[in-house]
Amino acid sequence: QVLLVQSGGELKKPGASVKVSCKASGYTFTNYGITWVRQAPGQGLEWMGWINTNNGHTDYAPKFQGRVTINADTSTSTAYMDLRSLRSDDTALYFCARVISYCGGDCFGYWGQGTLVTVSS
Amino acid sequence: DIQMTQSPSSLSASVGDRVTITCQASQDIRNYLNWYQQKPGKAPKLLIYDASNLETGVPSRFSGNGSGTDFTFTISSLQPEDIGRYYCQQYENLPLTFGGGTEVEI
User: What number of C-beta contacts closer than 8 Å exist between A and B?
Assistant: First the structure.
């Protein structure tokens, strides 16, 4: 079965960087992209960006452009989300997700368990 | 960016009630609209994709409708396990955007 397993929670100071991993299993990694979505405490869902794991192409939300990098290691079927210059309002639960194959596009039927990133001095 | 306006932001209903949530897009998104359920601290769960298609394994009391800019999500008979937050999401254009969510309580 399709599984996305994320790395553990992180506590970071303002200005630092964080790198969250998402290890995929149960399917051919390069057949589907990986998307990152975050959720601040008590808030809604926010799309950050995605990577085409077949060719490495990425798209980022304008809000995060220049501060986020998403990449993937096809040898280990792992995607990474690197967020820099952390602020307190980056405190959130970060999810990776994959689409279902029978949808017209970005329908996320598979999700990681979430990684809590806390930014505090 | 395409804005997704979801309403109501919260609702309280009784077991067995019919519950409807609406989602309005700021521009035509055809049928590129999904609905998710989320429980606290958990990942969202896809319920409806492409506006009206029931995801595999999801109970038939959930349904979705609409196209263009106006969409509805319905629970035909609310069950205790349906409490949680529901979100719509468009994928007509990047950046992908979500509605603000609807908290469903019993």
Answer: 69
